[in-house]
Amino acid sequence: MLSIQSLDVAYGGLRALSGVSLEVARGQFVAVVGANGAGKTTLFKTISGTVAPVSGAITYNGRDLLAVPPAERAQLGIAHVPEGRQVFASMTVMENLEMGAYTRAGRERWAQSLPMILELFPILAERRDQLAGTLSGGEQQMLAIGRGLASAPALLMLDEPSMGLAPAVVDLIFERIHQVHRDQGLTILLVEQRAAEALESCDHGYVLETGRVVLQGPHDTLMSDPRVRRAYLGM
Amino acid sequence: MTDWQWFIIDILQAFAAGLLVGGTYGLMCVGLGIIFGVMRVVNFAHGDFMMLGMYAAYYLVTGFGVLAFLGPYVAPIVGALLAGPIVFAIGWVLHRFLIANVTGARVVSAEAEGHYAQIILTLGIALVLANGGLILFGSLPISVQTPLSRESWAIGEVLLNKARTVSFFIAVAVAILLYMFLTRTSLGKALRAAADNPIAAAYVGVDVDRAHRLAFGLGVGITAIAGGLIASSQSFQPYIGFDFVIVMYAGVVLGGMGSILGAFWGGLTIGLVQQMSTLVLPYQLQNTAIFVVFLLIIFFRPQGMFGRVWERT
Ligand SMILES: Nc1ncnc2c1ncn2[C@@H]1O[C@H](COP(=O)(O)OP(=O)(O)O)[C@@H](O)[C@H]1O
Ligand SMILES: [Mg+2]
Questions:
Q1: Beta-carbon count within 10 A of B292 CB
Q2: Contacts A84 to B, Cβ<8 Å
Q3: ipTM exceeds 0.90, yes or no
Q4: B184 reaches A (C-beta below 8 A)
Q5: Residues spanned by the domain of B158
Q6: Does residue B311 lie within any of the structural domains?
Q7: Which distant-in-sequence residues (6+ apart) come within 8 Å of A78 by Cβ?
Q8: Considering the domain boundaries, does residue B15 fall inside one?
């Protein structure tokens, strides 16, 4: 579904990604783990089009994604839940979800996706008329994921949903992400610093270090790799 | 009547005048507020777009008289409302070919450099519009002719100028329509989302550059309607924009930069301050009173009196 070939991205002269290749097949849960500054967010921004690569190719459902203007990429079914949540702070919870459904698919599926989202995160139903800026960090993360789901996406991209959240909230959010993947068969691309939680239930994982993929493989291979166990899983 | 009663009537009269003129000021400020709120651009040419609105209304109603068939009462109203789409189109084109080069999604998130170019460009547009206006329209003060501006309704001893009263209600109606557009329609919500968080807006599929173009056109168009309304109760020339810049900036700052609803209340308050100040100050000093209020706000409440500053996470 999503195929990235030897992607190079730089900020000015500074290399952020070097020769990154990555595959996401339909229905898969793919996790990319890496420390702070490894280039995870840069990878997502390149897919969404806010950052342009130096070289490399991204194809999405057989289409050259780099030729698609950034604002149109959401229409193709790509939902980007950005790092640090980035909810629309001055708009209500409900309006945030409606903005998620700004795409054609999102509008058509709204009647089904709204109850699904509110069932997944009941707190959003309670807070529906509250301004998003007044929510707690965990609630904002749930809202950001809900906004992503409201677009009725084909590919859900999650950038560090655990960032700055209490462990109990992180557990709940990962639990919900798995639930969406399991129940709806939604394709998910997750980038995370918390390797254990991210790799635990992925189908395929990548390890990113200073802009390069140093290791990759299916879930079982990665979980039993001694380097991963030592450096990322703390075993 | 006693002196005391006359004094009360003077106060009520000034209050009523302030309220009426404040309605159009409020609408004017909403136009500037939308541009700042969505684009984070301080539009120094805003007063000159208002001037264009005044001349658009003038030529439609009095100059070329294309609206004369509507009669002297309806024509000025329709003329003011039509000034909106005309100036919207001018703003749209200017944004497309000039302003978009120094604003937009890239510049909103970047700091410093981009803003110098915006200041220079909007100042340049202001000069071109004012001086171009002088060449095209001449320097003779003119106004939109309507019998309403010479008639009044009396409420007890307080007189309400008919032209100003009608303008007030139209300004309020346009502001309400705009508010409904921003809060009820999908396009309006997209504008607010682009204002709130341009990056997240792009991720949900909003074309932020197009949202900016719409905001700029709407902002100058709304202010042009306010200008068209004022044009029937006050004479003007191509440099009039400059006189109103202080009113608009004071109103927007008072309302809280970025709050569109706040901008309306800010403008309304400025109208009240301006008219009430005539009770104690000579007429020529009414804009000085506005300036003093402006400084007091910046000193004591830089976040504005009404709107909350839009939080950006
Ligand atoms: N806007 C930017 N300008 C310059 N350098 C940047 C910018 N964003 C990220 N970087 C640099 O690129 C590298 C990768 O950053 P990022 O993709 O944010 O990593 P991660 O999300 O894995 O923490 C880091 O070295 C970071 O300092
Ligand atoms: Mg990151």
A1: 15
A2: 313
A3: yes
A4: no
A5: 21-300
A6: no
A7: A47, A48, A60, A153, A154, A155, A157
A8: no
